[in-house]
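Amino Acid Chain and Its Fold in Token Form
===========================================
Scope: a single protein chain, as residues and as a discrete description of its fold.
Amino acid sequence: labelled as such and written in the usual single-letter residue code.
Position: the record begins directly beneath this header, with no further notes in between.
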Amino acid sequence: MADLIFLIDQETQEPIKVEPESFADIGIKEREDLEQWVIDHPELLGEDLLVITSEFDRFDKTHRRLDILALDSNLSSDSKGILAIIELKLDANRSLADQQAIRYAAFCSTIKMEDIVGLLAKRLKESSDDASTRICDFLGVDELPKLGNHPRIILAAGSLDDSELTSCVLWLRTFGVDISCVELTPYRLPKSSQIILVPRTIIPLPEAIDYVIGVEQKEAAEVRSITGSFFDRGNFDNPELDNRLKATLNRPGNLTPRLVKLLEILLSEDKKWEREEIKQKLFNEEHIGSDIGQTGRYLSNLSQFLTKKSNSHLRQVIEFTSDGGGQMKDNYRIIPEYHDLLKALIDEWNNGRALSKKLV
């Protein structure tokens, strides 16, 4: 059911109901209009996406065309890029859009990051180096990550009034398939040729929570919160720990200054810091990120950096909680016995950086 929208007449103060329309009734075409709108404004889908290409047909042994291939702004728990398969319909009723999208997700599961760079460079008519830089900036990383083999699926349509499709989507989600549905409803303004386009995510949505929870409780083990010991922690003596921490702080790239800012926040007060609290401080006080969304991506990348197998020395000095899958971290805290060591190393890092700036 479409959202109710009312305009208020400023002269009479009376509400005027704005009626929803169908794309077919107002002459909107799927490829020329709807697809181009999403390419130009992917935020219509309520997601932070980088469009890589459209009408993608480079699949082996099939001539099917994927509407839009995009890259998610988040990385997976193992620091890999996530593709987004976007299937568009003017009306999803009896369209089998879910089946199409599943096929495309399977087809795209073997795509490599170098392929994505080439496709983006072709679409934007820029060099591969520029495309690589654009992707790194979008993801908030220093180097191009590998691509994971579990693409997301986004079904978007002017109408998603198809119980068969939505039931299938809800069922797939219980098996960990990241699939969502977005309804894009057009409204015609009274006495005007202008159209208002209202996007609305209907899956996942509050009405579906009880269904999903019920099935998950029946078929999956209860997810429990556990500490950072989910990941192997280091057990280095002080000299070795000092050397490993120095090597990390001397690591080239943009991630290191962000890591220092994170450590400074954690050192500023001996307590458990919530993720949202850290994100706000990074953005408002440390000016990390051009907007709060980018700050969140940078924090996610730092979190993933902390959980790399090679960084057990960082987990020796920083504790945090994690969900059962190890994906979402929270309640960060510097272990008190390492407080002085970390503070001394960060002071040394800041002094060295200030000296380098003077010498330039």
